[in-house]
Amino acid sequence: MYMQIERFNDGAEVLKVLAHPTRIALVNFMIEKGPVNVTTLYEAFGMPQSTISQHLSRLKSVKVVSGTRRGLEIYYEVKDKRVENILNAVVSA
């Protein structure tokens, strides 16, 4: 019996959050462009700001992305370096 299943919890949570096409696309965009604000994201994706914010919230909940305040805006960037490897495996398949 494999007793160390708990050590996979973090990775499983990241995969669950990434299991949405919009979140994969957002993460990929941030990897390519670097830190971006919500305005840049909703203009690039043609989605309402509230939708983008909800997806960012899910990504932040598992620490895939983080936000840094610059004046009145928050710039989001990918913080979990494992995610780039995951996307490369998924997108190139």
Question: What's the structural blueprint in terms of helices and strands?
Answer:
Blueprint: H1 9-18, H2 21-33, E1 36-37, H3 38-45, H4 49-61, E2 65-70, E3 73-78, H5 82-91
Antiparallel strand pairs: 1-3, 2-3
Helix pairs in contact: 3-4
What is the compact description of this entry?
With 93 residues, the chain is α+β, with helices and mostly antiparallel strands. It is built from five helices and three strands; from the N terminus they run H-H-E-H-H-E-E-H.
Structure characterization notes:
This is ArsR/SmtB family transcription factor. Pfam families: HTH_5. Residues 3-93 form the HTH arsR-type domain. Keywords: DNA-binding, Transcription, Transcription regulation. InterPro entries: ArsR-like_HTH (IPR011991), HTH_ArsR_DNA-bd_dom (IPR001845), Metal_resp_trans_reg (IPR051011), WH-like_DNA-bd_sf (IPR036388), WH_DNA-bd_sf (IPR036390). With 93 residues, the protein is an alpha+beta fold. Helix 3 (38-45) crosses helix 4. The longest helix is centred in the N-terminal third of the chain and has 13 residues, at 21-33. The chain has five helices and three strands, in the order H-H-E-H-H-E-E-H. Helices cover 58% and strands 15% of the residues. Strands 1-3-2 form a three-stranded antiparallel beta sheet. It has a single domain, classed as Winged helix-like DNA-binding domain superfamily/Winged helix DNA-binding domain (Arc Repressor Mutant, subunit A, Orthogonal Bundle), CATH 1.10.10.10. A hairpin with a 2-residue loop joins strand 2 (65-70) and strand 3. The protein has helices at residues 9-18, 21-33, 38-45, 49-61, 82-91; strands spanning 36-37, 65-70, 73-78. The model has no long low-confidence stretch (mean pLDDT 92).
